[in-house]
Design a protein that fits this description.
The chain is of the alpha/beta class and 331 residues long. It has one domain (5-325): Metal-dependent hydrolases (TIM Barrel, Alpha-Beta Barrel), CATH 3.20.20.140. The protein is 50% helix and 12% strand. It is built from 15 helices and 11 strands. It has helices spanning 14-20, 24-57, 59-69, 89-108, 125-137, 160-169, 191-194, 196-210, 213-216, 235-244, 246-249, 256-259, 272-282, 302-308, 313-325, and strands at 5-11, 73-78, 114-116, 118-119, 142-145, 148-149, 152-153, 172-175, 221-224, 264-266, 287-288. The strands form 3 sheets. A 6-stranded parallel beta sheet has the order 4-5-8-9-10-11. The chain has a 3-stranded parallel beta sheet with strand order 1-2-3. A two-stranded antiparallel sheet has the order 6-7. Helix 5 (125-137) packs parallel to helix 6. It is globular and about 50 Å long. The two termini are 13 Å apart.
Length: 331
């Protein structure tokens, strides 16, 4: 029987927090984060994360929670709060090495059920390929990346070596934003996450499509969190622009919608009708079960959310774990 695989699950790494504690860059980033989230969201976030620390750090507690959800295997990535895109080159190298090693050690406690992803410092493109290689050397399956770095989009030519090496090695790239570039417009009602995360996913994927990155690297194994955000269900607008405007279509060879069938998307869209539309847009073979374990913006019952979409048996089992099995090591 195909195992149930959750590709969107996180680990909190106290080692990384200790590494950056007291760094001047951290204070500035935390101050900006406080402004961007606002006091009401921060008052909720602190207790929410503290309550979930055992599930984020203790493998036994994680496995018990997985059993309760009916999840057999998790693809575990560091909490995006560990990106620390402010870090200088020396700090960034220490950070990615520590994060990769700590994530690998966490997953090694139950290697049959836990597979891990590392981090790359996108703010230092020259380090990105080294960070990917280091993650793979630890036995991780790839790396988690944000939707952008300060001053750089994923379409930046500086990342060409990262895409090339990821394609050559078959590494998994898990696209998971942290923060949002819409800034103060989202300072209330946790809009930085509620609206910001799906916006960042859509923008980042559009950069990869329209710049031709996916033409040059058609075998990239990229998983987009949050169902790819707003892009898959509104891809018709991208197709129209590609057909109607020379400035839009110049960078990529094919209709934007065609590239969605080269990517993977998690199922975390919080609406059964949107999940059905995601599957229609990208294909049932490109959607993977995702929960955002164990955060409050995820789902405690990923299989229940999948059942609510009332898919065919074949599509249900593909999303449940069949598609992910092709990405994971064979037993």
């Amino acid at each position: 029987m195909t195992p149930t695989v959750d590709v969107h699950a996180h680990v909190l790494l106290p080692e990384v927090d200790a590494l950056v504690a007291g760094h001047p860059g951290l204070a500035g980033a935390q101050a900006l984060d406080a402004r961007r989230n606002g006091p009401a969201a921060l008052a909720v976030n602190g207790p929410m994360v503290r309550e979930r620390i055992p599930r984020l750090t203790d493998v036994a507690v994680r496995l018990a929670a997985m059993d309760a959800q009916g999840v057999d295997v998790q693809l575990v990535s560091p909490s995006p709060s560990h990106y620390h895109a402010w870090a200088d080159e020396e700090t960034a190298e220490k950070l990615y090495r520590l994060a990769n090693e700590a994530t690998a050690a966490h997953c090694a406690q139950e290697p049959r059920r836990l597979h891990g992803l590392g981090l790359v410092p996108l703010q230092h493109p020259d380090q990105a390929t080294h960070a990917l290689e280091h993650a793979l050397d630890q036995g991780l399956l790839g790396v988690e990346i944000s939707s952008h770095a300060p001053g750089r989009e994923l379409s930046d030519p500086a990342y060409a070596a990262l895409w090339r090496r990821a394609e050559e090695t078959g590494a998994i790239l898990f696209l998971h934003p942290f923060g949002c570039t819409l800034d103060e417009r989202l300072d209330q009602w946790y809009l930085s996450n509620v609206v910001g995360q799906p916006t960042e996913n859509a923008v980042a994927l559009s950069h990869l499509i329209f710049s031709g990155v996916l033409d040059r690297h058609p075998e990239l194994r990229l998983i987009a969190a949050h169902g790819g955000g707003y892009l898959p269900t509104h891809i018709g607008r991208s197709d129209h622009a590609w057909s109607a405007r020379a400035d839009v279509g110049a960078g990529c060879a094919h209709l934007p919608s065609s590239y969605l069938k080269r990517l993977y998307f998690d199922s975390l869209v919080h609406d059964p009708y949107v999940l059905r539309e995601l599957i229609r847009a990208v294909g049932a073979d490109r959607v993977l079960l995702g929960s955002d374990f164990p955060f409050d913006m995820g789902t405690e019952d990923p299989l229940g959310a999948l059942r609510a979409a009332r898919l065919s048996d074949a599509d249900f089992h593909a999303v449940q774990g069949g598609n992910a099995a092709a990405l994971l090591p064979k037993e």
